[in-house]
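Dear colleagues,

I hope this message finds you well. In preparation for our joint manuscript, I am sending the methionyl-tRNA formyltransferase (Metamycoplasma salivarium) sequence together with its predicted structure, so that both groups work from identical material. I would be grateful if you could confirm receipt.
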Amino acid sequence: MKQSNKIKLILAGTGHFSSQIFESLILNKNFEVIALISQPNKAYDRNNNLIKTEVAKLAEKYHIKLFQPAKIKEIYDDLSKLDFDFFMTAAFGQFIPNSILNLAKKASINVHGSLLEKYRGAAPIQHALLNNEKETGISLIYMIDKMDAGDIINVAKIKIEENDTALEIFDKLAKLAIDNLPTWLINIYNNNIFPRKQDESLATLAPKIQNEEAQLFLTDSCDKALAKIKAFNDQPGAFILINGKRLKIFRATKSKISTPLTLNFANGKLYLIEYQFEGKKKVKHEI
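The corresponding structure tokens are as follows:
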């Protein structure tokens, strides 16, 4: 599947999930990444220095043109001067207007972390875990002016294992994208695809997670509490208030293990594996 001319890409994403996928394409001889687009740097370290996003670090590492607009429409003129076949997003975090989508010579596409039509929106991985789904995956779709509603080009699936948290799922889906995207992109480039329209009646939403949604209560069922712990492991972290102090819980199990900390929920006990009391260091027990 070698190309006589490299397929030219502009890639838009922000965090670790995006950067893993994008680095694989940067290193693939079939592609030339013309530019990277990231959200602006917003986080600060302990010394009050701005922390670069993972995609911004990637641009620096490989000396690739980087854009970090507050709103992507601000760079329309810059992008219109570039020659590229595909505009592709992966967990970018901004709405893309049609004026930008129409610039790609071949297609504007999105790598979405769910099995569409399920879980359109900003937090598909978290919602799959909250709902105790048994499988998830990635969907490669055409981008249109409605969120995650474009025709589905390809899908790849994985099982959700019993101990998977959002962290594991993000990494598994990134690997799934790395394994499949080169072939998928070449097939689109060569018009060797059979996209299908989404069934709007099957669409479900996965909106951005609000911090208060991560709170646990002892009146919750074990399954509900455990699903929240798995879903919010990456961020913002599931938490419960104990004597007015916040206890963050990153991993837990219903299976009896040797741990000094357990919590009694409405219908059973959770054994804490990884947790952090407010103002203290994170504790992790081997199991």
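For the figure legend, we might mention the following. The mean pLDDT is 95. DSSP finds seven helices and twelve strands in the chain.

With kind regards,
E.M.
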